[in-house]
Write the structure tokens for this entry.
Amino acid sequence: MTEQQQATGQATEENPQRFLIQRIYIKDVSFESPNTPAVYSEEWKPEINLQMNTQTTPLGNDHYEVVLQLTVTVKSQEKTAFLVEVAQAGVFEIGGYTQDEMSHLLAAYCPSVLFPYAREAIASLVSKGSFPEMHLSPINFDALYMQRLEEARQKTAASTEEA
């Protein structure tokens, strides 16, 4: 392997690119419905708030745990109808990619793999709470990743101009 390939982490015959899903699992889950049963008899006018976060933990040996955390709070008539939190996780084996490619895989591609599982868990919990069906719209994690990169570039450019 040449020094340049070693420095950039580019794939070679000795270090081919690989992306393998080792495990997908729920790391944490919570469902709260503090105003039942009264909320069932009120007019249903839901206000939905979705919060999302991802965390990546290197596990060694080209293995990474990625956790997609989704919190959905639904209020109706200014009362909390329910709050559901899901931490959907996966262990991924990823190797042979450049640092930029790794960042993209861990911050965008892995969460997009996990999202359908988290979405299904949320839909199931909401249904078991006896609320109307809830199916989260698809999320474009690539667009969110590119937006974060652009914001970081602008912040860096602004701090460079101030110096």
Remarks:
- The longest helix spans residues 99-128.
